[in-house]
Amino acid sequence: MDHASRDHGLNRMTELLTDEVETGEPVRQRIPVAVLGATGSVGQRFVQLLEDHPWFRLHEVVASERSAGKRYADAAQWRLETSMPSKASDLVVRSLGDELESGLIFSGLDSSVAGEAEDLYADRGAVVVSNSKNHRMDPDVPLLIPEINAEHLAAIDRQRGRRGSRGYIVTNPNCSTIGLAMAIAPLERLFGIDALHVTTMQAISGAGYAGVPSYAILDNVIPYISGEEGKIESEPLRILGKWSGGHFVDASFRISAQTNRVPTIDGHMMTIALSLRKKPEANLIDAVRRAIAEFSGEPQELALPSAPRRPLHLVDEADRPQPRLDRDRERGMSVSVGRIRPCPILDIRMVALVHNTIRGAAGAALLNAELLEARGLL
Amino acid sequence: MDHASRDHGLNRMTELLTDEVETGEPVRQRIPVAVLGATGSVGQRFVQLLEDHPWFRLHEVVASERSAGKRYADAAQWRLETSMPSKASDLVVRSLGDELESGLIFSGLDSSVAGEAEDLYADRGAVVVSNSKNHRMDPDVPLLIPEINAEHLAAIDRQRGRRGSRGYIVTNPNCSTIGLAMAIAPLERLFGIDALHVTTMQAISGAGYAGVPSYAILDNVIPYISGEEGKIESEPLRILGKWSGGHFVDASFRISAQTNRVPTIDGHMMTIALSLRKKPEANLIDAVRRAIAEFSGEPQELALPSAPRRPLHLVDEADRPQPRLDRDRERGMSVSVGRIRPCPILDIRMVALVHNTIRGAAGAALLNAELLEARGLL
Amino acid sequence: MDHASRDHGLNRMTELLTDEVETGEPVRQRIPVAVLGATGSVGQRFVQLLEDHPWFRLHEVVASERSAGKRYADAAQWRLETSMPSKASDLVVRSLGDELESGLIFSGLDSSVAGEAEDLYADRGAVVVSNSKNHRMDPDVPLLIPEINAEHLAAIDRQRGRRGSRGYIVTNPNCSTIGLAMAIAPLERLFGIDALHVTTMQAISGAGYAGVPSYAILDNVIPYISGEEGKIESEPLRILGKWSGGHFVDASFRISAQTNRVPTIDGHMMTIALSLRKKPEANLIDAVRRAIAEFSGEPQELALPSAPRRPLHLVDEADRPQPRLDRDRERGMSVSVGRIRPCPILDIRMVALVHNTIRGAAGAALLNAELLEARGLL
Amino acid sequence: MDHASRDHGLNRMTELLTDEVETGEPVRQRIPVAVLGATGSVGQRFVQLLEDHPWFRLHEVVASERSAGKRYADAAQWRLETSMPSKASDLVVRSLGDELESGLIFSGLDSSVAGEAEDLYADRGAVVVSNSKNHRMDPDVPLLIPEINAEHLAAIDRQRGRRGSRGYIVTNPNCSTIGLAMAIAPLERLFGIDALHVTTMQAISGAGYAGVPSYAILDNVIPYISGEEGKIESEPLRILGKWSGGHFVDASFRISAQTNRVPTIDGHMMTIALSLRKKPEANLIDAVRRAIAEFSGEPQELALPSAPRRPLHLVDEADRPQPRLDRDRERGMSVSVGRIRPCPILDIRMVALVHNTIRGAAGAALLNAELLEARGLL
What domains does chain A contain, in order, with CATH numbers? Predict the structure, then answer.
């Protein structure tokens, strides 16, 4: 994969750039990118993950009118454990809707504004890689997990046609959905899933910085997250389905989701029970464990910069995975699966954990963009 | 129910007692009781709940050799929000195995010693009301929830026969089981349950004072509680079953339980999905809601002192029940049920909450003892 | 104190009222009261504490335009552990500024609107008992802790004169200040305080329901609370000062306050180190302990309904007071003081704890109003 | 500093070692080290920090009889966020007291056994770098913070003389003390400290894995840590004192410490108020800020592997430092200082934060050992 010679719509940008020359390495120019909603939770995570990214370079930060014109360091109340990247600090915040120089745009916008704004930039010719829910179920927008359904990128052609533009939108799933879909993808592939119960225990960061008041969640569990169960019951079917004959054909199993907010900071946990269509004759548990341990996909083959070495980590200890101990495996990009055991009612039970703001949000979008770049779609 | 004239094995004790004479009320003597394991978590809760109990009076506290001979105030490291009852403070701790004057004994013993000690006192003629797991599945020991299976008390006769003693043991279920069994009892009665998935989110007090290190659970979820899933998958079947022909006949549905520890102090939450054998023709959800709202049992009829007015509280808000807001309903003796809604796979989904150390432990045992007293079995 | 025969400005209201007649007691009519900001955190606590109050009866609830006209049950998102009082549920929310029938008004208003609104109602003739900060330092408004400075009520005359109205405002101090001022009041009285260092560890409820995002405080401490240190450094001087010659004369010692937010729900903790002006010759620690244990004031003499039996609880255990275990002493109306010991630099060190939303807010205001009633000032 | 040619007592070990040869770098052999108490909290942190250490190589793990003979992976219940280093997993645990091959020994032993065991190994000729409290105040044992009192290493000669051995013990201070001593060291140097009040808010990891039950600390603050205040009031005086004329001469100011446990996982916070002996004529606050920002010491000059670039981070935001956001600065080796402002009673107030298990424990010991190596004392 030769990134120096790629030839696509971003080339018009490369003359604007002067990347650092690293000693002894051939000079390469990184792709300038914009982040929409850059001052919010997901936006900050984008800015953090883009620091030192080998292929992408943060070039523009975009936020609401209120922040426009300020230095990013003044507009964003930075809340991550690492320091604000120094290169981001001095960027001047652009206003949502402004013309942007970047041809690749990450969107961490709130769903109240994401729908329209993402369409706008895609129509203007940009590639919009979105974490928002608005366009996830559009009939020609890939709902992408690169390890699972890279072939959904075929929908881009049709989307470009509809827009009459080189631009398009690609989305990543809801944070809990990503954990669930990845954990069960090898089982759907090998055995076919028939029915699935999932109960989630979701971290407070999933609701954004001020989403969950401490008075609501300390010493407490909230058995409800608005709209979440519907997403978890529908998105995995799209993800595990096919692009066929010019449209998405969903997988056909049934999901029952019950969602809860618990007092953890990062890391969505879920208990899963599921039945399979065809079972191996011999040891089912061993077959399931092997399927999970060996799961791999295109990001691993292509060695994309954000790809985990192993998308699924099979953990053996009886009391794992745990959010605090396992969420950061492979920089938060792996899903951990444990407690694989028989179910007295269905076939299999297990526990899965996903870092909701990395693999479940900004990291997912970044990996999506890397796949687009590797496939020559930027 | 005339408690002044009851005539049973405890009468030998009444001459020892001088109860406070409350102005204007006929003088009644309360039944002297002992608490085994009185310095532990469950034992402290017994001592707390017995303060000012109208029928029972704390007369003896029993603990391990190490505490024996000390004042209770010196032996117990009191950890409840209310002050140690002053009458308990001055009791001298007896050693486990000592002869006791009380004919009614509450056991909050650790399971490592409960089995033998409870048998010992029952064989000697005492009524042992236990919160420990050891004898729960014995073939002639009631696993009692007075609202559900008061008819299991019929097993006492057979147990007395086996022991050749007036004494016997009655047990209450595991803390999570109580919440689950109560929430589903009206559904089993009316419709019959076929299969049930439950995922628990259990408070740290369920493991005893030092059971869960803070380093293990802060900002974390632990998807494993030793032995818990087995109890939840078996105990409800005994509880919802019958005493018939001299032995227990279990209910016959299947349960799949997945248990988790979460950072809450008190209150076990659980998500439930279940299928029913026979469904009402009309609106199933309404029928289920009504069954839960109207559920009542013998403790309510008898107006037992610890009985909640309503054993099940149907909560309507979309995001309830919640441990911190709902665990203390009716002094912790009610189970709250909410989010009753259809299941895409089975018939019904709902959320239940039980105060694990009150209704799920010491309060359950107290209610059991009250039923025994009201039935003339003390 | 004969409440049946009191004769004051509220009498015009009594004909509107029909109170429940309690058997065997002389019929008394409770005073109708209004709560400003009734849907907020402090307002909800007022509504909760007024349920079953023997002297006061919740008659009107007042909130912002947005809630006006709705039933209280629909306007307020109730967040306390007990259920919303049924009598409050059906009250129709009045709009701030509306004419009110109640002559006694509790204000839990946000400081952005409290200043003007409280003046408005006082000018119209009502007695406004406020928890807001706006008028605390006014030259003729009592900053009242009934156990300490009941004589500050002398300022009311002058305030009424200024307003040309029967109405006036009385305030209670900041939540942390109340704990501090009460803990040191007996020392100031007996020995005189010279200098005092205090570091607070404040619960999240102090910032109101949505004041502290969980993402900000889980696994964290925030060493800053806006405006708090200034209040703690000035308010106690006013409280412990005198009303003399028609104005307040502050106490003259110096306070250095450092404030922190910690992940507790209720209960502000503080470590205190202080020096005294005159010391007892003999054992200083004993003298201080005695002074604290014996502290009492007018609420105790008058046996006001909300008065704790002992305003200060001296706790002896080395590791107490603790928020979760001690905040609810005497229904949250007592301040707990412990760890009284010498200081290597100053004279005395100790730890104090106050329930910030009861004794430190709504409960404080209620006690203030009870003192006003007992003094015949309503 | 040429580590290849160092000539000291460890040379006898080098023939046992085969280090990895890294391409293009001169082959260097890392020093084999042992960890005492390797299965405990501090021991695990040592094992973690030694992975990939450029100078030291984990060669032996030592624990109690109970673990001896097992693989480390089987003996230690690993509880850190990163995985157990694979090279550690296969080491066979040695028993405390066994002859060791390593000449450099890190001790994370519990104080109940540390005193004797550390003496034993030092007498046998090993350099023991200890995190335990037992020998901290010995008259010839350095209580070392390399940035502050590297000259205390002069005591080693005398200690070796006493032991009649090449071996000796060096200790690091208590976790809170390290944060405090580092934060005030530049002020003591420049202005001299006269008196100091400190209140700590300490993380639960400071008590070891099972030290603080979750039931004790959730929604709570514990205003007491056994023995902690005494250490904080004495150790800084030793650290900031001199080695002169063959013994330690303590600094002479007074410290008053009040310690609290709060529900945070890692990171000890403290509020500090202090008075200075001589003050700059001009702006005191600016002078203090500059002193802290510019503080540096021998580890920085020598660029020791574990040395932070800046030992003190001056943070400017009004609400910082905060444990979760700032404890990991420079891999947990920097102390953060903020809120520097005047004190109404003394001269200066500020807030400091130290990562208690890294800079405050294992990381401190590691830096001590690096200084010993750089000084040719191994």
Answer: 11-173+362-374 (3.40.50.720), 175-356 (3.30.360.10)
